[in-house]
Amino acid sequence: MQVDFYQLSRDPAEVVVPLLARNTLKAGERLLVVSADDALTGRISERLWAGAEIFLAHGLSGGAHDARQPILLADQPQPANGARYVILADGVWHEAALGFARAFLLFDGATIEAARGTWRALDGRDSVVRNFWRQDEGRWTKVL
Asked: Across-strand partners of 13?
């Protein structure tokens, strides 16, 4: 499984999630976006609907059609839509993310210490590949 750490320095999570979501759908995968912050979830939802190129259909978990959603927004990493990819948009790591094929941990200055701790905790774990991405002048660069 792959864990991608994304350091948010220029753009907030609600701007980055649609980019990752678009690429996930292009790869033929479903996505679960996890955030315990209701305000952040609302901003992400708005951005997914108002995409510059195309809106990204999604739903909020707990609905009657969770299983049909290509992108599901939830407060816990429980993929009711069968997602194999998960974005931890609020910077909070969940061990359940290791049950997905790919996890994206978005973190900013407020959650950087927790992200560092997660990076260290995942070091040496069998079958876990870690990548670290940083935004430089709007472009994402793989650092590690």
From this structure: none
